[in-house]
Amino acid sequence: MIEVENLSKIYELDGQKVAALKGVSFRVKKGEFVAIMGPSGSGKSTLMNLLGCLDLPSSGTYRLGDIDVRTLNSDQLAEVRNRQIGFVFQSFNLLNRSSALENTELPLLYNGTSDSKSLARDALAKVGLAARAKHKPNELSGGEKQRVAIARAIVNHPAIILADEPTGNLDSKTGEEILKIFSRLNREGTTLILVTHEQAVAQYARRVIHMRDGLIVSDSAREM
Ligand code: ADP
Ligand code: MG
């Protein structure tokens, strides 16, 4: 489903080049649950942004299903992102003035789905937040905000969910609840790639990729 070969990303900032990814290769099969770990600055978010079609690599190839992502223009990239990928961030990235339901509905508004309200309600119910549909982000706890963000990520039934430190702003008990939701979504068939610092995630993920200085230093499947 995902095939990454020799992917690199060089950022240029004030004439200075930063090699954030220095050639990473791996494959992810449909239905896998992969955890990505590694110290701050090792390139985890850069990799997630490339996998999520939020950015393009400097070199190397990224295949998503049958598509070579480098051949897509920005409209096509947005389309792939919207249809196939759900993204969950550490900082939730919710619209503060919109309710939980409106935040969840957002991806559907881009593709003009007619029954977006009821689909958004279904997604909120899936993360146990049906009773909070009218609440705005400032009326929700951190864990609830992240559950809204997960509802928004799954509302289009994406094949892949990418989560970049989704438990980073949560206490460990709440983080565990969020991981359980991801784990359930994975058991239901969603391919999941999750960046985390939490050792506890190894309990859920069947495969852990460790990164350092823009490279993959280990990639190991775990016995379940
Ligand atoms: P991680 O998520 O593992 O902490 P990142 O992928 O965010 O690492 O960053 C990898 C390296 O790339 C770091 O040295 C960081 O400073 C640099 N970097 C990340 N984003 C940018 C950017 N937009 N412009 C310039 N440098 C960046
Ligand atoms: Mg990061």
Write a structural description.
With 224 residues, this protein is of the alpha/beta class. It has one domain (30-56, 83-221): Rossmann fold (3-Layer(aba) Sandwich), CATH 3.40.50. The chain contains six helices and ten strands. The protein has helices spanning 44-51, 74-84, 100-110, 116-126, 142-154, 172-187, and strands at 2-13, 16-28, 33-37, 59-64, 67-68, 85-89, 160-164, 191-195, 207-212, 215-221. The strands form two sheets. A six-stranded mixed β-sheet has the order 6-7-8-3-9-10, with helices on both faces. A four-stranded antiparallel β-sheet has the order 2-1-4-5, covered by helices on one side. A hairpin with a 2-residue loop joins strand 1 (2-13) and strand 2. Helix 3 (100-110) packs across helix 4, helix 4 crosses helix 5 and helix 5 (142-154) runs parallel beside helix 6 (172-187). It is globular and about 45 Å long. Bound molecules: adenosine-5'-diphosphate (ADP) and magnesium ion. Adenosine-5'-diphosphate is lined by residues 11, 13, 18, 20, 38, 40-46. Magnesium ion is lined by residues 44-45, 164.
The figure for the number of domains is: 1
Judging by the overall fold, what is the CATH architecture? 3-Layer(aba) Sandwich
Low-confidence stretches: none
CATH homologous superfamily descriptor? P-loop containing nucleotide triphosphate hydrolases
Q: What level of helicity do the residues show?
A: 25-40%
Strand order of the largest sheet: 6-7-8-3-9-10
Globally, the shape reads: globular
Structural class assignment: alpha/beta
Q: Say which molecules are bound, naming each kind only once.
A: adenosine-5'-diphosphate, magnesium ion
Radius of gyration: 17 Å
**Average pLDDT:** 93
CATH class: Alpha Beta
Number of strands: 10
- Percent strand equals 25-35%
Q: First CA to last CA: what distance? A: 22 Å
Reported by name, the CATH topology is Rossmann fold
Order of helices and strands: EEEHEEHEHHHEHEEE
Number of helices: 6
